[in-house]
Please model this.
Amino acid sequence: MKVSFKPTFIRQFKRLDLGLQQEANEKIELFEGGQNLTQLKIHKLHGRLAGWYSFSVNYKTRVVFCYLSKKEVALLAIGDHAVYDK
Model:
């Protein structure tokens, strides 16, 4: 799967500590490869974010994304549950 990164995602990613950046990179690689997707806990978002999806980096951190096509996604935001408020 092809993954693109929106500028907001990149800014938020750069603010994370290095350990969390590394963990996020590992989960993004899993997501790109389509491997072990159950571990990522991918789920649809509702309400204001309907049509978007999220997956877990760890217990606290989430990545919000949207499908651009069947084989391409855009990562929109990364952070704790407050990322859903943006």
Observations:
- The two ends are 26 Å apart (CA to CA).
- The mean pLDDT is 92.
